[in-house]
Every structure is written in C-alpha cells, then in structure tokens.
Amino acid sequence: MSDNSSSGSLGWPSVWALAAGGMVGGGIYTALGVVVAVAGQWAWLSFVISGIIACSSAYCYIILANKFEESGGAFTYLREVNKDGVAGSLSWLLLLGYVLTMAVYAFAFGHYLSYSFNGGPLITRICAIGIMLALVSLNLAGVTKTKKVEIAIVTLNLLALIGLAVLGFLQWDTLKLVSGIEPRPLWSAPIGAASIFMAYEGFQLLTYEYDEIKKPKKILKPTIMAAVAFVIIIYAIVAVGAVMLAGSLAIITQKQVSLSVAARSALGLPGLIAMTVAAVFATAAAINSTLFSSAKLSKRVSDDKELPSFFKKTKNNVPYRAVILLGILSTVLAVIGKLSSLVEAASLIFLITFGVVNIIALKFIKKSRKWISWVGIILSGLVIIILLLRLSVVAPVQLGILLLLALFIILGRPVLVKKYSSNS
C-alpha cells in the first residue's frame, strides 16, 4: 500500500482532533456522575485505570492497522489471522456496543438540552428522539462528517472542559469530594473504571477510516497515543474540578447532567448556557461519528457474508438500511434505558473487544514491547470480571439480557447468516 500511503486527506491535526473528540465527545458528559457514584473521591483514579487499558489497546490497534494496512478495526484483524467465525461474532457484539453508545449519547443530549430550560421527562425524550431522527436523516442524505466542523466542535468541547476543571481547582476544597456521601475505599477505583470504560472507545472509530489517513504509518502512532494520553488528563482533572464546584452528592443525584450542574454552580446562568452548548454539540457529533462508522462497519461485515445481505444495500453510497436500523435501536434504548445500565453494558462490550485486540497484537508486536499487550490483556480481564460481578448485583436483569444476546450472537449468528446472506 506504499503507493497510497499519502493519498488520504486526514493529516495529524485532524487525526488527533477526531481521536480526542471521539472519546471526549460523549464520554465525560455521561460517565462522570456514574463513576462518582461508584468511586467517590477516587473517580479521577478510575479514569486513569481505564485510560491505561485504552493506552495499551490504542497501541495494539495502531500496530495491527499498520500491519494489515486496511480499514475495518477488530473485525479485519480477526479475519487476517483466520478467525472468521470469531470475527463475525465480535462484529455483531461490537455493533450492539455502538447501538448502546449512541443511546447513551442521545440520552445525554436530551437531558442536557432539557435541563437548560427546566424541561420535564417528556421534553427530554422528545429531544433525544429529535437528535437521532435528524442525524439519521442527514446520514441518509449523504451528509455524514465534515472534518472542519468536527474539529471546531472538538476545540469548543475541550476548551469548555478545561475551563470547568480550572474553575474547580481555583476553589480547591477536598471536602467537596465526599460532601454528602460516605468516603469510598481505594479499591472502589477499579470498580469505577469498569463502569465507565465506554468513555474511551471513540479513538478506534479512526481504524475504520485508515484509507483516509495521510501517511498512516508515520503519523498514526504518535498522534493517537498523544490523543489518548491527553484525554486521560482531561478526564482526571474534570473528575476533580467538577466535583469541587458542585459537590459529590449533586454530581451523583443529577448524574445525567453532572457537568451542567458544576458549570451552573461556578458561573450561574452563563455557565449553564456554555456547558449546554458544548454538551449538545459534543454529543450530537459523537452520535454522528458513531452512526456513520457503525453503518460502514455493517456493510463491510455484510460484504464478507458475516451479516445478512440486508445490511449491504446502499443508496448514494450510504448503507441506508444499516443507518435506519441502528438509528431506530439506539433511539428506543435512549428513551427507555437507564444511564448507568447503558454505560456499563457498553463498557463491558468494549472491554471485551479491546481485550481481543490486545491478544491479536501479541503475534505482531515487537518482543521488547509485548508487555504493552500483556498490560491490556491482564487489566481488561480483571476489569471485565469486576464489571460482571457488579452487574450481577446491581443490574442482574440487564446482565441476563446482555448474556442472552451474546449467546444468541455466538449460536444463532451462523444460522441467520447462512439463511439470509444470499437474499437481496
């Protein structure tokens, strides 16, 4: 692919911004209240632990992307190592993860917008449905992603978050980290990390656009690794700063809009307006990127006959059936789901996916750097066990549904694919 290695349109500023924006776009807005509820004053450490897994996984994604020189992410890497069946099952599971993620972002969009003008539950649901309908329509019309607009949104988003964190640090008061709640033990940090891992999944959407990256073998590793490291720092300082402004109890009780609560505490109405603008643009952009990439993945998987051919149909170069179906499922979950359950279910799926990518990379990574893969494998495994135990206690029904879906994917997928792959 050496002749095409420079043909992409995405240089390092775009790759960095899209990787950082893919993570921060919806992650911190939805995850902060969830992790503070679990880890209390150790929420910042939860983000660091999850970030270490994300770092090792990002490194492995980069190694594999540059090795195979092909878009497609984990699905492609498994196909390249002759694990077609596993690739098919993982792709279905990953698509479920994207549906859950878009539901979380739509949920956040609806709550942040509604909260800004004291709207009730009905207004919140209408806002969530409205943004999903708008973005599905834009994708169907072929208006998917404008890089300059996304970079502008990322810049606005990061400035808002950094500003919020700085305001919090200027009002330093460690008592705020445990105000109104029981102090959490240190071992609650890995439990919190398990609960909000979804906040780091966004960088791997770039692996579906490998062909659009300019000189990927040169810029991909330093750019994405820098983006992940930067996001870890942002998450950690916001996890401290926002709680310093509003207090733990307020962040937990209003976890759907935790950053708006913090901004309002700091600056009143102007702070609320600024954070609402940042939140709605960030979550909308995150939905759009995820919908575009997941629909693209659906077509790729269908082309390889691991999804029914229903998903490969395109109009104006858009896999419209995939866009519509993924959009409908995400909208339904955004309306009926609970924030913590959606975040934790999505986190479990991405932990499994990233763990698999770390395992695949062991075969191709330099011997002196295999420890990076092992860090990701061991930490992912431990955190998956922690999350399964947590869900079995706090959300046994949701966990049961997720496990049944996983069982269906493993056992039922081959039958469905065989039956429908030849249909037009």
UniProtKB/TrEMBL annotation:
This is APC family permease. PANTHER family: AMINO ACID TRANSPORTER-RELATED, INNER MEMBRANE TRANSPORT PROTEIN YBAT. Its main location: membrane. It is found in: Cell membrane. The keyword Manganese does not apply. It is a multi-pass membrane protein. It holds the Pfam family AA_permease_2. The chain crosses the membrane at residues 12-36, 42-64, 85-110, 122-141, 153-172, 184-203, 224-252, 272-297, 318-339, 345-364, 371-391, 397-416. The keyword Cell membrane applies. It comes from Gramella jeungdoensis. Keywords: Cell membrane, Membrane, Transmembrane, Transmembrane helix.
